[in-house]
Here is the input.
Amino acid sequence: MSTGKSLEAPAQQQPQPSGSPKAGGRFKRLLTTENLMLAPAITVLASITIFPFLYLIYASLMDFALAMDDPTFAGLRNWVRLFKDPAIAQSWKVTLIYAVVGLGLEVIIGVGVALLLYATPWGRNIFVTLWMLPIFVAPVVAGLLGWFMLNSSYGLYAWVLQLVGINTDIFGNVATALPAVILIDVWEWTPLITLIVLSGLQSLPSEPLEAAEVDGASYWQKLRYVILPLSARIIVVAMLIRSMDIMRFIDTIFITTAGGPADSTKIIGLRLFEVAFRFMDIGYAAAIGLSMLFVTILLGQAFVKVMYGR
Amino acid sequence: MATVSFKNVCKNFGDQEVVKNLNLEIEDQEFIVLVGPSGCGKSTSLRMLAGLEEITSGDILIGDTKVNDMEPKDRDIAMVFQNYALYPHMNVYDNMAFGLKLRKHSASEIERQVNEAATILGIEHLLERKPKELSGGQRQRVAIGRAIVREPKVFLMDEPLSNLDAKLRVQMRAELAKLHQKLKTTCIYVTHDQTEAMTMGDRIVVMKDGVVQQVASPSELYNSPNNIFVAGFIGSPAMNFIDCKVKQHNGQTYLVNEDGFSYLIDNQLADYNDKEVVFGIRPEDISYDTTDTPKENCQQVRVDVVENLGAETLLYVSFGEQSVVCRFMGAPKHSVGNNINIALNPNRYYIFDKETGNSLLK
Here is the structure.
């Protein structure tokens, strides 16, 4: 408590003339051992998060393009544009589909595989290792891999799809591009869900499960009434991690479709990238970035509520 | 309600034999206690009966049904676990109703049974609470309630009281005994606490290293233990053991040792003349010797520690290298360092073979 006080106090004192003896005393109190020891960490934290965050707010209020000489004050122009821009709305829509469908599939498959592995009496580690392989692939490589496999001229999967009568350029078709990038995401990130959920399952207390068996529960009843409720929290954690990840994800889509065709795969992260580094409109990009941060915080809060509100 | 039989049951974990050739017939309505130090195989035996561990060999029967390969859910048993094993996400009512719901009892029937069990255990006011909002004693009541609502053939209890504090344990012990008298369901109770075993069991099974040492009623176990392990395990404070030799003198048999110990026994032990045996005497079979003249079966000792328990006093005394615990009624009459004479009851003693540990008195 006292540390908090001594941190606040000098801030209040700052407007006062610096020569006042009172302010000097406060400053001395600030230089306690614990504050001095905290200082490096706080400085680093401030320089890598707080300063950029404040700068982002500043940039979002400026007419700020890399090509121009000096940023000029723009007021809320970037923010107004953000809410009126149909391209942004389209990107949020794509992001929503990408997140809901992708995360939904990842959770269903990931939890299912985790339950299978949990019930496997032997060789679990080998299966886990094999199943985890996609995580170790860099997202860019995963994107390249998907692009090769689904390439309409020489892709293996494309060839298989052609055999069953699907003759289209997967990444070039508005109807198939988004499902394709979602499936690549599912391929790469489902194992992460499995890993998190499996570790949660393995740390479940064995006694309630045994009690359920003795109480007369079949496997499915045990799953429905005991295992899933007890591991709900860890599943929510996995979803939280993945959903925040999806928000800022661009790598795979950048490689495979670059957001096309016709913006059908341009999720908000990719839109931000484009505004910032292709159109060089840093002010507008800052506003988009802050709006993404806002949505991510809301999402995180919602998950935390679900987790602890039970 | 049902009988339970273990027939030549063995259990191995890898190379380790945890339960060796267990044979046990448990009668209908009996309260039987499996007792022994940790690692003796008592919990494993119980878990095999519950179906939570597979049997390596042998047969387990509940009633006339062989249950070796039956799922736990089909065995019609109820189990109380050491750590309560309540479902943390369900309230007390749902915890108790869970087994009934799975068995598709009607809602009104479930409500009646849960309320009845809650009344018996005095937890009616806790039905809406989650397990984490309960004290240890309350949790254990809920766990017992979850077992009794089912009205199973057999109750299995795996150290149900060992997580409770001492006072609560004594209270719950009496309540469990009362509950059994009321319900009359066959009950198999595992504990490492010999006091629990002695006070609750109709019969007690003493186990050590996976082998049954003795199956008997509490008083039989106390009065005629089969071997030195049972003798030392049952009774608190534990029986005193004194290594000595059998000596014949003037047609009488004495047990003597180098610390000056001498005890006249009425048993001849002819085969054991000059052989090493272990003499055993319970702390309560030792009394003060107030006469001045030395007598048979008396021993001068030095008082090392005095424990005043109020109603009784424990004296830790020694002579030579030998330590002995004595238990006297009332307040202590001696203090540390005193030399006193103690008299060993000439009629209540135990003699065990030094090699095998088996009792030589039959």
